[in-house]
Amino acid sequence: MADFIQTLDASKLILAEAVLSFVISPYSAPTYNLPIFLFGIYAQESQEAAALSLQVFSGFLGASALFDIVWLIKNYQGTLVKLVSILILLLKVPTFVAFAGTLNSRGVSGINLRGADLGGATGPSSTS
Questions:
Q1: Could you read off the pLDDT of 5-37 as tens digits, one per residue?
Q2: Closest CA to 25 of 17, 13, 16, 34
Q3: Positions in the chain short of pLDDT 70
Q4: Whole-prediction pTM value?
């Protein structure tokens, strides 16, 4: 399993999802996916992009997967568009894992949403 995760290419996954989102954008489909994937392409390819950009994209990707489930339940789509939307939803899981690997290779451990750090970014931490 670890070998499979290490072989995931985040740039190809995010590009495939951006293309699929663009293809179904004229139809009844979630409108937020294409901008999220375009931001992901920028965050992945830009050398100036800080680890924070990758963390933000990973957060957006995870949240959008939950939004996709709600959107698919509440909205009607044609059969082909629905299949592509489900494919995009399924591709978000390996994309999230691939971006976590990219973060790890850039020296950031995990998504690091600073949930347990009550001191803030500049304040002292309360760990003893």
A1: 667 788 888 999 999 999 999 999 899 999 999
A2: 34
A3: 1-6, 47-49, 108-128
A4: 0.76
CA distances from residue 51 to 13, 32, 61, 106 in whole angstroms, order as listed: 19, 22, 15, 8
Positive or negative CA dihedral for 46, 51, 53, 59? positive
Query: Is residue 68 within 8 Å of 42, Cβ to Cβ?
Result: no
CB 103 within 8 Å of CB 61: no
Task: Quote the CA–CA distance of 111 and 60 in Å, as a whole number.
Answer: 11
Query: Which region holds residue 109: left if phi is over 0, alpha if psi is between -120 and 50, else beta?
Result: beta
